[in-house]
Amino acid sequence: TTFQDGGEEVEDGAVYNVTLKKVQIQQAANKGARWLGGEGDQLPPEHTVRQYETSKIRAIKAGTLEKLVENLLTAFGDADFSYISIFLATYRAFASPRAVLELLLDRFGNLETSSHGEVANLNSLESEMVLRAEIASVLRAWLDQCSEDFREPPDYMCLLKLLDYLKNNMPNSDMESRVQNLLKQFQNQEVEAVDGFCSISSSGLVDGEELEISNPEEFSSFQDHVVAEQLTYMDVMLFRRVVPYHCLGSIWSQRDKKENKNLAPTIRATITQFNAVTKCVISTILGTRELKIQQRAKIIEKWINIAHECRILKNFSSLRAIISALQSNSIYRLKTTWMFVSKDVLLMYEELSEIFSDHDNYLTSRELLMKEATSKFANLDSSEKENQKKSQKRLQLQKNKGVMQGTVPYLGTFLTDLIMLDTALQDYVEGGLINFEKRRREFEVIAQIKLLQSSCNSYCLIPDPKFIQWFRRQRHLTEEESYKLSREAEAAADTNILSPKSQKSMVKRISTLFLGTDVFTPPKEQPPKSSPVGGSSGESTDSASVSSCEFNHSETEDVCVTPVSSPEDPLKKISGHPLSFCSPDSSMRTPSSGLSSLPSSKGSISEPGSGSDSGSTPARDSVAGGAPRALPVYNRQSDGSCIIRVSMDGLHDSVYKSILITNQDRIPDVTQRALLKHNLEPDAVEDYELVQVISEDKELVFPRDANVFYGMNSHVNFDFILRKKA
What we know:
Layout: E1 2-11, E2 14-29, H1 31-35, E3 48-63, H2 65-74, H3 83-90, H4 97-107, H5 125-146, H6 157-169, H7 174-188, H8 216-220, H9 224-241, H10 249-252, H11 265-286, H12 293-312, H13 316-326, H14 329-332, H15 335-339, H16 343-354, H17 363-372, H18 385-400, H19 411-424, E4 428-429, E5 433-435, H20 436-455, H21 465-473, H22 479-489, E6 558-559, E7 579-580, E8 641-648, E9 656-662, H23 667-677, E10 688-695, E11 698-701, H24 708-711, E12 719-724
Parallel strand pairs: 8-12
Antiparallel strand pairs: 1-2, 2-3, 3-5, 4-5, 6-7, 8-9, 10-11, 10-12
């Protein structure tokens, strides 16, 4: 089988990609060979005759909403077999379920007035049967893949409309009874808040219980594999509930608007659980002042062993949460404590940390995730013999149970990829057509999430009420509290004490833990001074400033963990920030904030920038263009475009928004776009000036009609401030 580019076909309201598929359908002996009695499959090529068949595959690239909905009925005939799944997984970015359903049923599904091309003869029974089969196929896929789209309490308007259509056009069909059952199921279910298993409010506790700092003895009573299994159980329950389309950049980036405070609850619950694990690690290590250094080291060892058990269970979410906590400033700086951690456990910790190395856009964790997505068990390799023996022994116990394991990913990776795609690719192309090529790219990520959700059905874990109750009871320390306790446990680091051997490159830049548009940077705060630990910078490794978890009282997703640079990292001094895994699209302002590449089968995003809601930002290159171009990125100008980060001076000076600009954009265009992204009135363009931050004491102020792309300083970070004119 061979494929050949057939160019494009343009229709009214749609642009199609055409591919010619050439397939060999027969190989027979030629006339001379047949005269000798030869058979085609037994003769050399020169004595055979091959017959080929060429078919045309049409895949819609861009179109109006009407054309995209109509294509649901024709895609199978055009050999675009994945179109229905792609549309259903991504249409919420540009249309509502009601709009799609009305077009599908009223305009294209009406057997009496349909203008659908395949139903030229409306009196033909065969044509009606064809249309009925097509509609049924689309509806069946919709109910199978995205039944949550119809959950609209208390009226369920879309589901009732669908039921009415089926009664009139497909009475007594299996589809009708299925929709009736779904409606009853929704109506009978009470409105349930997603249970994150980690609520720290008193409502999540049994009467009479209060939040408490972990008792080391109680924590030590739980076996390592039990803790890992329970964390995995909680993660699995939450990840399976994640609604994939909520991860789309255009949807997830809208979560901070007031009217969207309840947006994507399943993702928020997953984030809350991740943060709860991280905070639990810190509180168990630092929460008890009376602990001796050796006891604290034992707790660190226990968490490393739990992280290893999570790796065996293929739970990358809790694994990363534990590693992130151990690399937080308040834990990382405990030099003396780390010296009491055994060598074997430190080596294990280093290997686990290497999984999340930020090298080449976290290539190691991505490859490992895809490699083990559908494998029955983890593939464990260790460079240390003792750890290898331990890993294989634990893995063999898992295999002996005869139960396959799923895979729980770190969701932030997918959210970041989707946000970057949303920023780099335009929503609409020339003529106001919806860019469906963008949705195909997004579906590549969504499909991975769905695959992993399906794999989670393989887990067979039983909840342990004792552990879950203990986990819920833990009082989480703010970052100030944890840093203060860390300083009490070990005073300023001594220059003669060697730093613990930690990960080589888990966090080389704080900016790449959570990438994207919303950057929370608390007011500058001078950290306590301490004696230097060495290195060219002469800065103490615990000199990072500490900021409060209370920075945003309305959010429960603030991660009070400040990853720090490893000893090998040239960045010796990094300001502490409350990171928000609720914003996996968050990135911090650092001297080196270039972002890594996002792999793709249709082109690459080299060092993609942080993402945001791209909205309908027009781009100059049409989807109808030829070969795929390199996508615009942050901190680098390429192909006449780039991504900049803009904050609002005074009003929202702690929040960045990523904006795509081209070499055609002037100050009014960029200013209006920045105001829109910060949810401000775009008409107030005249009241603001745009400046680029060159250094702490230098700014580049742009004249009113300047071309931002050519006027900006491309040798410093692409960080801008929108300031109200005096």
